[in-house]
Amino acid sequence: MSEVVSYEILSGDKGGIAVISIDNPPVNAAGHAVRKGLMEAAARFNEDAAASVAVIVGKGRTFIAGADIREFGKPIMHPVLYEVVNAIEAVDKPVVCAIHGTALGGGLETALSCHYRVALKSAKVGLPEVHLGLLPGAGGTQRLPRLIGVEAATDIIVSGRHVSAPEALKLGIVDALDDGDDPRQAGIDFANRVMNENMPVRRTSEMEDKIASARGNKALFDGIMASVEKKARGQISPIKCVEAIKAATELPFDEGMKFERDAFIELLGTEQRDALIHAFFSDREVGKVPELATGAPRPLDRAAVIGGGTMGSGITCAMLYSGLPVTMIERDEESAAKGRANVEKILDDGLKRGKIDQAKRDRLANELYSVSADIADIAEADIVIEAAFENMDVKKELFERIDKHAKPGAVLASNTSYLNIDEIAAMTGRPQDVLGLHFFSPAHVMKLLEVVVGAKTLPDVTATGFALAKKLRKTAVRAGVCDGFIGNRILERYLTQAAYMIEEGASPYEIDKAVVNFGYPMGPHQMGDLAGLDIGYANRKRLRDSGWNGRYAHEHMDRIAELGRFGQKTGRGVYIYDQGSRSGREDPEVLEIIDRVREEKGIEPKTFTEEEIMRRYFAAMVNEGARIVEEGIALRPLDVDIAMLYGYGFPRWRGGPMKQADIIGLDKILADIREFEENDPEFWRPAKLLVDLVERGENFDSLNKKAA
Ligand code: 3H9
């Protein structure tokens, strides 16, 4: 047999059992060798007089995790998976699939083509192709509705979610659960049952009952399509999924398979597929940083957080949820009580949302969490995270005190979002133990953690930052020291560009609309209103107080904030929020404020198209991203992409700004920058890296590949 698929005969209760095992680590992806091996095994079993039932099972940690994603975009090699699954289903004797780990995508499609399915209780199944810009291309859209009905199948296919084995049993995706932890044995036991109970060959493709009521039901599909279109917001693949499921109800099975196959091939060629697969692999590459090769993480059994405000309490709860005991430090008893109240509010919210139950809420609040007004209580902590006011003097003074009380070997982190970690580290006698851990608000929710590595930070300290992120189920991105690190440095550039455009004639509402239509969940002004306009105001003030005197175009935002209009929390910001409403409406007074600023500056407003707005907004992002890579602040372009995807709402189906720039073409982005540079040379100096890449005919992804 093939190297990755083995075939053996065991004697069962009433005849031979052919055990077909897939062994293609790490996740048994159905690459060419696996497909070929399965095809041969199915043919062999069909002819094999020594076996009356077959079991297909995966070796190692999982059943098949899907098609081999690395093969997408390369020439197609037969047999393709849909040929394989059809061949398995066509076998004349019963085939059982034993599922453990995950049966995802092509893995579940393989299982659906078997005549029976048994799963370990811990297993998960799903069709996550939509997250890769695809649809299930090996019969998933045709077989799953036949097995469990159109509505349940649509939910699973369009959401791409993982379904637990118990739910899969309830829905009818699997026939039985096995209590043990050995999938091979579970498969053999089920095969014996098939023999003992004379269970027949049962082909999913021949099941028609569950789709009968959906056949020709226009209202059903119109409803599904309308809701999917609303959620998809620009994404193609969810729409194609619904079309293929509809085809399952309208066409004979073979024609439905062809419909699905054609749609799959069409999606394979899209930019969205390219972008989403880039995001998939970048998720995994971003954690591969040099320090992890040389430094093992330090212990992480107890933490201390300095500060109980919004950030401090969010970070505390993120750690409590992961099971890490936290001591919170505040400056006096009154602030300590406020800190506790902030933490309890988050935990109560978690309880309300069903994230935790009452017992867990009480254990986290009373056993894992404590608060103190004495900084000496950080003495037991393996990691101390300072989340105090964003002010260099405050932080310096705190780190001097932290240095006095933290135990030797403790990791000392600052949650600064802009400030120089090296200056902070220099206040201690152990700068090698200091790093930045930049959490995003709300810290118990947001996935991104920037791990900021200082000039003297030891590799094992950086490794501890990454280990903490993993424990908290966050995505860590390594960043070097500079004002704003990766994310906020880029944010500052595109917000500045937005402010320039407003000064020149665009309205904040036009900018938000363009950004939302690009795929962001909200525009920068909607975001500002949500976060609180007082934060940006304070940051700008900090910058100007520190002597910065470049071109300034945020006067309108300053004036809005100075009116006490801080956004949603005050009912008014750039938008007006009618009583209790979270979606704002446009405010004519804001437009008047902007008009007044323009008049004072003697600017004659001009109009902007949505395309003009996005070209400038996006080019500002890419140019700064390139500079950040060029300076080594980000290791690779993919680190910039991941930061913007997880911290700033950049649409995943565009892959991140650097990937999107590759897709558009770096020569076009550079041409845009050079065009803008003619009017504003100060802002638009093209990044050297961008110029070099264009000259060499390379792109950002070529840098990712070189670094791999
Ligand atoms: C599909 O099936 C299309 C079909 O409908 C139609 C075809 C015609 N291929 O995530 P991990 C690598 S589309 C290639 O760290 P975990 C991964 O890059 C597919 N490689 O482990 C990593 O490599 P490295 C639908 C893959 O335990 C290593 O395996 N399926 C694939 O945290 C370990 O992965 C999916 O979308 C793959 N399919 O999570 C499922 N999968 O070590 C995608 C993984 O070099 N996979 N790798 O960095 C997953 O969701 C997770 O990997 C899984 C395990 C949950 C399985």
From TrEMBL:
The processes (GO biological process) annotated in the record are: fatty acid beta-oxidation
Residue stretches making up the 3-hydroxyacyl-CoA dehydrogenase NAD binding domain? 303-479
SUPFAM superfamilies given for it? 6-phosphogluconate dehydrogenase C-terminal domain-like, ClpP/crotonase, NAD(P)-binding Rossmann-fold domains
Q: What Pfam families does the entry give?
A: 3HCDH, 3HCDH_N, ECH_1
Localization, per the record, is: Peroxisome
Top-level taxon in the UniProt lineage: Bacteria
User: Where in this chain does the record put each 3-hydroxyacyl-CoA dehydrogenase C-terminal domain?
Assistant: 484-577, 614-698
Subunit structure of this entry? Monomer.
Name under which the protein is recorded: Enoyl-CoA hydratase/isomerase family protein
